[in-house]
């Protein structure tokens, strides 16, 4: 996959606060890339640097393989904070102002309103819109001029559940239509549902980055027991695919490779002459994994 953004060793401090420490990762073209981390982890600072609103203390980044950030900037639509739309103006008139500020995209207004499913309400006043519609209009304004890349900071913040669902659907749809999307979020659940790739930040450090199904893969554990636990422990350690086996009182907790199932453990033990008295699959939630990653 072609790289649309390459970030190399970016650092940024606000006085004594180190907001970003040597952050590096690549964003492949065509993905929905989530920058995930608790509040204060440096997500907005990173987006600000990438959009040329803030200056990094060290490091650099390259958009679209182009060395001139100002040329590249024109191909990026962004939503860093809630835009100030006029409450008494219609969507069409608000977008006219947005296009005038951007100095392009005026002819695009009907097309972008259709994309965010607001065409039928194009002449209604902004103040009559639901929260989700207001945010969809904000996203429409980022689409003026057909940018290849869209950058959103916490795009569902402050919305009601219906609005959140509308925006998540819209992000997936825009990605299907060919936009690469980079979004910051503090919600693991959101990144899991919407993003294909993720970078996890904690207090300015990059913990992990890569495809969501690799980085956020859940790690299951299997609990087993038998009347002779010591014998079971020495047997199970010989089974291929067992990563670790820890005994606590009368139970053994196993971490296993992806191919290992409770059934395969059961038949392995039975074949070797040990009958299990206890067999339990414990799903480790992604929440637990995320908390472990970002807390300690
Ligand atoms: P996030 O978007 O993940 O919530 P931010 O990038 O907003 O994180 O903030 C990262 C850290 O930098 C936080 O500790 C925050 O308090 C601090 N910070 C952000 N902006 C400023 C600023 N303008 N002046 C001083 N500190 C700031």
What descriptive keywords fit this protein?
alpha/beta, 296 residues, binds adenosine-5'-diphosphate, Alpha-Beta Plaits, 34% helix, 6-stranded mixed β-sheet, Rossmann fold, single chain, 4-stranded antiparallel β-sheet
Description of the structure:
By secondary structure, this protein is α/β, with parallel strands linked by helices. The chain has 2 domains: 3-215, Rossmann fold (3-Layer(aba) Sandwich), CATH 3.40.50; 221-294, 2-Layer Sandwich (Alpha-Beta Plaits), CATH 3.30.70.100. It has helices at residues 43-50, 69-73, 91-102, 109-115, 131-143, 161-176, 188-194, 212-215, 229-236, 262-271, 286-295, and strands spanning 3-14, 17-28, 32-36, 58-63, 76-79, 149-153, 180-185, 197-202, 205-211, 221-225, 242-248, 251-256, 278-282. The two termini are 34 Å apart. The mean pLDDT is 91. Adenosine-5'-diphosphate (ADP) binds next to β2 and α1.
In short:
The chain is an alpha/beta fold and 296 residues long. 34% of the residues lie in helices and 29% in strands.
Topology:
Blueprint: E1 3-14, E2 17-28, E3 32-36, H1 43-50, E4 58-63, H2 69-73, E5 76-79, H3 91-102, H4 109-115, H5 131-143, E6 149-153, H6 161-176, E7 180-185, H7 188-194, E8 197-202, E9 205-211, H8 212-215, E10 221-225, H9 229-236, E11 242-248, E12 251-256, H10 262-271, E13 278-282, H11 286-295
Parallel strand pairs: 3-7, 3-8, 5-6, 6-7
Antiparallel strand pairs: 1-2, 1-4, 8-9, 10-12, 10-13, 11-12
Adenosine-5'-diphosphate binds at residues 14, 17, 19, 37, 39-45.
